Amino acid sequence: MRGDLYDVTLIGAGPVGLFGAFYAGLRGMRVKIIDSLPELGGQLMALYPEKYIYDMPGFPEVLAKDLAHQMTRQAMRFHPTICLEERAERLERIEEGWRILTHTGNEHDTRTIVICAGVGAFSPRKLNAEGVAEFEGNGVYYGVREKSLFAGKRLLIVGGGDSAVDWALNLYPIAHQVTLIHRRDEFRAHEQSVQELRRSPVKILTPYELRRVSGDGHLESATIFHNKSQEETVLPVDAVILNLGFVASLGPLKHWGLELEGNSIRVNHYMQTNLTGIYAAGDVCTYEGKLKLIATGVGEVCTAVNHAKSVIDPNAKMFPGHSSDMEIPALV
Ligand SMILES: Cc1cc2nc3c(=O)[nH]c(=O)nc-3n(C[C@H](O)[C@H](O)[C@H](O)COP(=O)(O)OP(=O)(O)OC[C@H]3O[C@@H](n4cnc5c(N)ncnc54)[C@H](O)[C@@H]3O)c2cc1C
After folding, report:
1. Does residue 260 form part of some domain?
2. Which pLDDT tens digit goes with each residue over 148-176?
3. Is 220 in contact with 141 (CB distance < 8 Å)?
4. pTM of the prediction?
5. Residue 41 CA to ligand 1 centre (angstroms)
6. Deepest in the core among 123, 271, 326, 329, taking most CB within 10 A?
7. Domain range for residue 139?
8. How far is the CA of 225 from the centre of ligand 1 (A)?
């Protein structure tokens, strides 16, 4: 599907892309944000939602997921267009600027781009066990899009981190039965959630791994094994949810003709890349003295957006003035 023309498109909805979306809205730009993940927040939500962050101005301590929610609220203030589960793959020059083509076949036309792609597009770590690929999307899932899909079902959840434990806790009230297996005896998830899990009706089996899934047309059973004794157990199940973490890759962005240094995109003081109208900010960019922190990334994206604004509108000043002096719409 082809879209209409935006002033700026941010690739990546981590903390840096989210703040960039807010800031571009503040500058009166038409804003789009694209991310390969099904939710906003980048590393904060995908890698460490339950960890505290202590180095954000104004927050002596804040859980990563709470910071992501607040940054999302702030980003939504000027109603940017959000495109999730779309991985930016190709780039084409168009008369007005650039066209971004995503893996879904969608085309996004934009005057300028700010790449806030962090360590690259995240995708779920896949499990190479018998039957898993065959039933993927039809009984085997790498995440939960709609809780109602699992209502009344016999579920097997695999994993030992926050996502696995949180989904077990979230789904047992609506599922018929939930079994959670983890290959180690200790869970990596937040201690409080693990305690809650142990008090819940979720059946916990450790140290167990998934060997195969099978069924005739639809999923019927999962074979798990004790990874010390190798003893197998067959569980009758309707669905398996695999929460094995994420892998990240800059992948296609490496072939866009951007000047790279290792896995990072080289920028100048305006956060401009070697391609006209394309900027980069946050973990994905590099320059002399670069620090990979949220606090520095959000500063970089302000510079990028303000510069992009002055390029597409030569009458606009690079420095916009103070937000406290501007007319700002109410939060939603
Ligand atoms: C365990 C841990 C603890 C940390 N603690 C702190 C801390 O206390 N303080 C601190 O300042 N920093 C901390 N960090 C670092 C911080 O999380 C990063 O600096 C920050 O997330 C960078 O933000 P970003 O928006 O640049 O990138 P990211 O958060 O990585 O977001 C990038 C987004 O871009 C998307 N994306 C990438 N490529 C594409 C593509 N081709 N198409 C579509 N979407 C794409 C990804 O899916 C992702 O959502 C920590 C990191 C880790 C792993």
Report:
1. yes
2. 999 999 999 999 998 899 999 999 999 99
3. no
4. 0.80
5. 8
6. 271
7. 126-244
8. 35
